[in-house]
Amino acid sequence: MKSDPFPPVRACIFDVDGTLLDSEDVYTQIYNKILSSYGVADYTWDIKAIQQSRGTPGIIRLLEWADLPLSVDEWKVEEKAHQGDFLQCKPLPGVMSCLQRLSNALTPIDMALASSAGKHLFDIKTMRAPELRRYFPTDLQVFGDDTDMDDCGNKPSPDIFHLALHRINKTRTAKGDVGLEKEECLIFEDSIAGVEAGRRAGMRVVWIPHKGLREVCRGKEHDVLLGLTAKEGLPSSPASFQRETTHARCDRCDLREGSVISDDGWAEMLMSLEDFSFEKYGIEL
């Protein structure tokens, strides 16, 4: 039985890149191709940690780091030329099993997507795993190029998660069901900015970072889980990232148990979705 003070989770909101699909490695591959064409060294995780999932501000950070003579629009043109690389994407370990089990929960779980990337790219990325799409109703898929996102901020702004919950409740109301509260939502994210966005949205968060990001954040896991490391004012220098995230070092981060939980209980770090505990979140299977 569930023993913590939180209500049972009744909605799960998933990021896509690096959470459901291995597309973050493809992004790195594409970015390194572009950077190499300009004679710039490889894009590493200490840079990606402060650029990932941030939309235009993230691209600006990348361009400043690489000292490239490109505008944001010019970078997007370069990136678009490599979109075919996303055809190699596949679901990450534990993803399909987790989605299937959530869809069969005794108490129905609403499932939504909330991704900073575009809908067209999602379609390309899931070409090898079209079955993944069926778990997410079209009206519960929120992407960065969604018209409803026009006046919204990029992660770490909570706007995309608020919009996802709004759509969930609109669907529930149409069926005669009671709307959900923020505390009944669980967000699955891989990026630092995404974790902060989830915390700022007032929702619980499961953070599943790439092994490269885990290494960059080693000793600072609790800072990330508390949503303290990705604020918009954070300097873009990796050295500044390392320096400004040492105030709440993790003295009890032992991943032998498969997870790290924030001191306030609102966020958890997992190695993969294979380690996700349904019972912990009040999800009965």
Task: Tell me about this structure.
- This protein has 285 residues and is of the alpha/beta class.
- Helix content is 34%, strand content 10%.
- The protein has 11 helices and 7 strands.
- The protein has helices at residues 23-37, 45-48, 56-66, 72-80, 95-103, 119-125, 159-174, 192-200, 211-216, 221-225, 238-244; strands at residues 11-14, 110-115, 141-143, 185-189, 204-207, 259-261, 267-270.
- It has a 7-stranded mixed β-sheet.
- The longest helix is centred in the middle third of the chain and has 16 residues, at 159-174.
- The termini are close together.
Keywords:
7 strands; alpha/beta; seven-stranded mixed β-sheet; 285 residues
Unreliable stretches covering 5 or more consecutive residues? 232-256
Order of helices and strands: EHHHHHEHEHEHEHHHEE
Helix content: 25-40%
Number of strand segments:
7
Secondary structure layout plus pairing:
Elements: E1 11-14, H1 23-37, H2 45-48, H3 56-66, H4 72-80, H5 95-103, E2 110-115, H6 119-125, E3 141-143, H7 159-174, E4 185-189, H8 192-200, E5 204-207, H9 211-216, H10 221-225, H11 238-244, E6 259-261, E7 267-270
Parallel strand pairs: 1-2, 1-4, 2-3, 4-5, 5-7
Antiparallel strand pairs: 6-7
Summarize the structure.
With 285 residues, the chain is an alpha/beta fold. The chain has 11 helices and 7 strands.
